[in-house]
Write a structure and sequence with these properties.
The protein is α+β, with helices and mostly antiparallel strands. It is built from twelve helices and nine strands. Helix 3 runs antiparallel to helix 4 and helix 8 runs antiparallel to helix 12.
Length: about 250
Amino acid sequence: MNALVLANTTIRQDASGRFSLNDLHRASGGVNKHRPGQFTRTDTFKALVEELETAHICAVSVEGGRNGGTYVAKELVYAYAMWISPRFHLQVIRAYDSLVTQNVDPMMALRDPAKMRALLLDYSQKVLELEHRVQGQAEKVDAYDRLSDAKGAVGLREAAKAIGVPEKRFVAWLCENGWIFRSSDNSRLQAYAKRIADGFMVHVTTSIQTSDGREKLVMSVRITLRGLTKLAAAILTAERHMPPSRALVH
């Protein structure tokens, strides 16, 4: 089996396939606060070891001698890398994926149920991690899902509701960001010509009946489905840089 290599550092393995935390520490840059001993004292490490031992996995081995050190199971390698930094975590994941790919013969895997189960479990773990990340983005996903029900051009109130933004704050955002403006007499909102040319907004003239029974033509601004999609992306992107007290989407 090929060795796991990170930052030109070969990560040693013991006879049971566990990986050296000491080598991982060197590969990460060798910062003192990231020493393996610091990590093994954390509650996260202790809880993971307990869970692995419940599943009858010998997760940790400490060896002495010149080439000794702390050797841990793959799950703890990932946890240690994440404890150091998201960047190092990603480097470890990519290096391990590359190692697995190099050492898997597709035909042998198909003929070996145990190996196939191991591969499926490995990929299942990654899927669960991705699902956890998606849950953290649920509000943003919901905002885009609501757009799928918007048909044609809609008014500002309906657009605000579709994206999940309070109407007054939504209108203020549109004014501040060059989508709409008030007419010279301050009586109605209008779309900027560029937004109309881009296909994001339209002006619609409708007939209403006044209190004295007469008909009156009124122009209103509407947002197209294309505009809704553009707005949702722009607002949610801007939200990442806003303090929670100023967030638009709730």
